[in-house]
Protein 1
Amino acid sequence: MRDAQKGFTLVEVMIVTAISTVILFGVFGILKVSNEQLGTIHAKMSLEENSREALFKMAQEIRQTSNNKITDNFGAEDANHIESTNTLIFIVPIPSPNAASLVDVNFDPKWANSIQYSLDEDTHQIIRTSTDLITLAAKRAILANDVTALAFSRKATTPELITITANAQQTLANGKKIPATPIQMTMQAQARNP
Amino acid sequence: MKTLKARNHERGFILLAVYMAAIFICLFSTVLFARHQVAVQATERYQNRILAFNAAEAGIDSALSGLAATNSTLRGTPPTDTTPSTNLIFQTPYYSFNNTTNTFGFKITYVPGRSDLRRIDAKGCAPDCTNTSRADQTSDIAVYSRITAGSPPPSLFMYGIYAKDRISMSGNAVFDSYNSNYGAYGGSNKSTDGTMAVNSTQTGQLGLSGNAKINGNVLVGYGGGSSVVTTSGNAKVTGTRSNLPQAWSNPDTVTAPEGATAISLSVSGNNTLTLPAGTYSASSISISGNAKIVTSGVVKIYVSGSISISGNGILVTNNHPANLLLYSTGSSSVSISGNGSFYGGVYAPNSAVTTSGNGDFFGAMISKTYTQSGNGSIHYDLAMNAVPGTVDLNQTEIVRIKAWQEMNSLAWGTGQTIT
């Protein structure tokens, strides 16, 4: 009975503590690596999600314009007759169900706002600038972060079809780039208005 | 007994270690699962947003299709009352989002004061229109459409040869048809399904002489009698003779689209010019000597001046006439000669077009006047019937979009005011 109530000896406690410490360090080491991996995956997913969201928003607004309302600041055509720019400027009507906002007296689109998409190369952000064509009141919004390159391209034969290409890559505080090679995302939008 | 108790102590420590490990694994799994759940839902929302937009556009397409049908009830009768109780003409039963099985709906309304306009409002939703589904997304589109005289033709080249004023064929020319989708002309790929049309009612404006033969049908201007077609020598028409529709109007003049690539198309000597697929504009076309133009894919060329094709002509991809479309934007002459065959479509509604020499013409043509001489025959490619019309060829009715607007613009109004 006394044997059963006997405590651990100092040596036993030290050995157990040492073994536990080793096991815990091992477990935490594995957790740390796993957590870093998870962080990387999460960062990559966030990058994709944010870029995709920005591309969708841009495509949605490009659909509102007309191919002859897109400023022709596209550069020279390449061998495949594709011209491109990193700043897209176009005008759109106000997206309101109210007919007075949507169309003019001839029931043509009532062009009301100028939209510009560009990349701030210092902050790696896609910037949307909208300007009211009458009051000239302007707004600036960030559509996406961690974008390292942005291009808009179109083929001369189909000027209403704009292809948006964005490269996304996050740089952590320790200088590590996630992912090592930027994710490239592409979306096409067709200007729907005549 | 002593040994057994010692083992019990050891078992307790292992149990603790197992609990700790299990807790770590649970936490780890929960975090991982939660993150993936968020990612899956985000992706689902994104996909549904695209689906909802496509569904809304399907609603617009459906409404436009309904409006395009002649005497469609969807057009309604515009109210004479300046303040009608309702402008609603038609609404799909599921427009108000109360149906679980459909994913889009639309309504059509009158535009007060404009009998030629209709407004279409379409809604699309994904995964369905219950508003309670997971990651539910909706899209709204408004369109102003205009119903006007003139409908898109079934095709740009619905006739093998069409001339506004006059057609003259002599020599040994034969007009017939084939279908380039079924291979090269010849053998069983020959038919008499093609039509030659002249929009004139005056005597002799479709003149056939020598051994000229039309293995197909003939149409003349509305009201024109049999005297419009004259034959002499061995010339003859094997098919039917009838009239163009009463509401027929001549094809419109075209202009080069803004995006057309300006190019010089004057080649001579032994030179070869290669044209990749695309749309081009040129002041003229001149091919002479042994020179030739080689095209790759579908090439459309808008020409403001004269067109003169001789020498080795233009080599068209797969000898498929629909791969070369020549548009004359002015009234300068069009001449196709030489001994090589020509494959393509010629749209020159204000030009005098001539084909001569021994080379055959494969494709279709629209002209002001058409003169054929020599031994070259004309083989209308029935596949050209699939070339979409870019201009109105006849006068029924057409529904065109005047204004298109998507309501759920996510970026609209966002941002900080710039001072």
Note: The beta strands of chain A are 82-85, 88-93, 111-120, 125-132, 138-144, 147-155, 158-171, 177-190.
Protein 2
Amino acid sequence: MLRRWVLYVLLLFVFGILVACGDDSETSGDAAGEGTTEEGQEETDGEQNRYAIVFKNTGNPYGEKEMEGFENAINELGAEAILRAPDQPTVEGQIQIIEELIAQQVDAIAIVGNDYDGLQPVLTKAMNQDIKVLSLDSAVNGDSRMVHINQADPEAIGRTQIQAVAEIIDNEGQFAVLSATSQASNQNLWIEWMQTELEEGDYGDMELVEVAYGDDLRDKSVSETEALLQSYPDLKAIVSPTTVGIAAASKVITDKGLQGEVVVTGLGLPSEMAEYINNGVSPWMYLWNPLDVGYLAGYAADALVEGEISGEVGDTFEAGDLGSYEVTESEDGTEVLLGEPFRFDEDNIDEWKEIY
Amino acid sequence: MKDNILQSLNLEKIAKFRELGLLGFIILLAIIIQLLNPAFLTFGNLRDLLTNTAILSILALGMMLVLITRGIDLSIGATLALSGMITALTVSAYGNLHPLLAILLGIMVGIICGVILGLLVSKIGILPIIASLGLMNVFRGLTFWVGGGEWVSAYQMPPSFKSIATSSFLGINTLVLIAVVIFLLFYYFVNNTITGRQIYAVGSNPDSARVSGINQTKILILVYTIMGGLSGLAGVLWVSKFASAQGDTATGYELTVIAACILGGVSIAGGVGKVTGVLLGAILLGVLSNGLPLINVSPFWQMGIEGMIILIAVLFNTNVKMLVEKNNLLRREI
């Protein structure tokens, strides 16, 4: 008797979890896409184009802004935006969503890839069914996309950070880099460009002592920063091209009371860095505007669908408020560059910290 | 002659030897790191090491109780994140909230999470690994939902809240102080109170524990509640230390905590585990995460080395256990 009762409760629990999971994915799609209401609209005028964006995972404030920018562009164009993201930043989750989008016969898919090569089969399948595929922010390989929207030129990002740190520490002294994981392709590319800038420019008195990896984890980034400070007592600056790393490094410097002795710069979220820009640990840092990345991707998707561009080098298109853009060659396929990274300092941080 | 040696090699002595071995290993590791980078054994670095290990040791003590009852709690990382997120949102909305109240709020959130898990395990009889796996996702989802997918950043938190982790009392960092107090409380609790001994009884032999009149349901709910409360506390300390609350705070941290317990000689099969051992286990992991970056080990090797050390500890544990069992069998023959 008791055993049967336990079984019922168990079944109820499992069912509950299933419902909760189902609910979850629906709400995440919903919150992101307002899919249901707009699908209703679509039935009334079947001509409306549908553009989908697939982000890495849900619950990422940066991703929310990127999808919001995409939606803004699509709304300006009078089409329908579908915003989707898996619960976890996995390839499998994205493949499932893309399969669904193919079944819905959307007109274009903009993807922020969780893996460089892993999405190729499903994205090729989409392109074979005449769905326009582009990637933004985190690229997929050249064969699985028609064009990539690059948030900023890796060369400009790498070089700008070295120029910034040189300016802050007066071209003299030791500095270290605190990156995300050692396999993060975009971070590694930026660091390569940093090293190129160091070799080519006039930075004879500056020395890059170490590249440390904090894995985008708070505790690990803190340990790595502390190790850098212990190992190099004369360290003048830490350059961290990643959100968690730059905030963790700034926190350590703040707690140790090293303001002014060791400076931090790099790439970070304005909301995370507001405290440390205002207290002087980081005189300034950079990031692109995710709203603009999404916005540009929205217009590029439309240009692909309308046939204005085909993803070939030299194609040009208008991107609403952002102006005119040209497709250029990248290492693997073609891309559109958003522009120089945006500088956040004491003067503008207070208006940006509320935004993202 | 042989019997005598084996008999004198009783369980208690081996447990003691095991902790000495662990302590020796930590000292050996410290010497190696010191030789490779003299900055290791400096006052500043040791202070960093202890501060960074405090949260891990608090959680490991709670996990020890759960493991002793033959259970496991995989939801603590998510509980930590949920408590941290709720506390961070509260202090960002009510900036003049007293830090002590913030800590209490975090502990309450954790206790609620712990009680739910305790009820699922003890009253309904779901396997701890399944129940906590399910709740892990529930709590993680709640964290995202409560935070609305956004992070709570340093500028939104009042200085009084951030100073929980940075302040010090009598020259000792508050985090370390809290960990020491909890360690002393636990030491007294598991060794000198009836309830503390009952936890071991439930873990080492549930049937005889029931026969001798121990209320197993009560004990199970108690250990999961303590675990939850400590996770809640750790959540507040975590967010205060790093001055940032994210939805994915401490993802996977439960495995580090379990690793610290296993290193400290707690048996997954239940009934075995000592407070001092767990503390040494946590310190060993702390030394690794502090020391490996200092000696410039490639990031590819860091994880590998940590894993290898855990494996060696477990192998050692198994061998010692086999020896003890053989010893017991021999005694039975006499």
Note: Residues 57 and 282 of chain B are 5 Å apart (CA to CA).
Protein 3
Amino acid sequence: MPSLTVIVQLGLVVAVFVMLMLSSAVMVYAERKVAAFIQQREGPNRVGPKGLFQPFADVIKLMFKEELRPGGADTVLFLLAPVISATAAFAAFAVVPFGAATTFFGLLPEPIKLQVADVNVAVLVVFAITSMSVYGIVLAGWSSNSKYSLLGGLRSASQMISYELSYGLALASVLVIANSLSLTDIVNHQSGYWLGFIPKWFVVVQPVGFLIFMISGVAETNRAPFDFPEAEQELVAGYHTEYSSMAFAMFFLAEYINMVTVSAVATDLFLGGWHGPFLPESLGWIWFLVKISALLFFYIWMRWTLPRYRYDQLMQFGWKILLPLAVLNLLVTAAGVILLGA
Amino acid sequence: MGLELPVFYVFAAVAVAASALVIGQRSPIYSVMLLIVSFAALAGLYILLDAPFVAVIQIIIYAGAILVLFLFVVMLLNAPKEASGPRPRLAPGPRRAGVVLAAVFAGELVWAVWRTAMAHEPVTAGVPARAVESVHRIGQVLYTDYAFPFEVTSLLIIVAMVGAVVLAKRHV
């Protein structure tokens, strides 16, 4: 029955949208709590039990703030920039699978895939949409008509271009092994075990690739220690200095959703997606959540542990160390695949 | 199937309109943004042609990388809006050269469209029609039949890169 499929599909779209919104709320809370833990503080503890409703209080506060626009700002682009950022962040997750096909304990007549759109070039679609998100930041920086914003936007543009190359090459080395561009195929390629106990995750055969992917992922999402576009001490708040109210909230949302997307893609590519021991295939999404949460915790942990790099060091590292390493990794991987006939 | 034609016209109209607006803009930033819209519409056309790989590559390379560099340069130079009013006329020499180039380009365009319109079968340039669909086939064709143009292009890019470095080094 096509109508049921359509309804289920639409439901899936809405569910993923709501989940991403909620995930950013959880991330805001987690970030503040983990930061507090690392700095031996309490963290948010006034709104709701253990401060659990703090993110919602934050959103309500932002909604009621005045929308400011600097004089001389380019109105169209100033308003468009946060929209581009948030849209790109949401859109990228559409092709990410987060669980095996399931019937929800027999509720549905036929199994559906836990993925909004199954595109056979999914990996590249994620990459393409992520590469579009830089426009939000660059345009925000330019249209604000403020020197701090402009510097933040320019830094972001050069940073994202530099790290996108290594990001793409790390992706390519996985594609060479999996011999497919579909994320679902790549995840299914990682089921099973070597010698009975080592999971067949690509991180085992691609440790260098995983490292490169995560480092460039952090740089792509502008998180510490690579958060130059918004380096507070030098640039006030970088590209979103002049933004307030919900426009600011949209940049904030985009940043957290991008982190979730990078972690989800890393899980699919390197950590075996929804495959894991003890749980049946239909509950694989629990494994997926666990793996994503671990990566996201790592993100926060890193932010509150490592100081920010210096800008020229970031560029040097990207072009002179990370990129050659990524090329070498791809070459070795390709040679290995040919020699071993995998 | 019936949906394909209207979708084609929407993408085609967006691509043409955006491209026309690119030259019509006085602000370079808006030109770059409209060029992105035009490229996105082109990517839509590629998807209609059953070539999702080419479409995604179009977005990654052109919209995602090259135009970011364009935007970067425009912002870095802080290129001002062109002044309104009558545009300054070119000197007669460059104008003549421009007319000749435009005529040649127009002729080429007419010839290309004419050839396609006259063809009884889809123009495939010797590549099987389904080839664009699969990444494997694109790779194979690229490194066998089209190896020479491919290598020449990479040589050209290296020359351009070395040239850019030489030009930039002079001022450092």
Note: The longest helix of chain A spans residues 2-38.
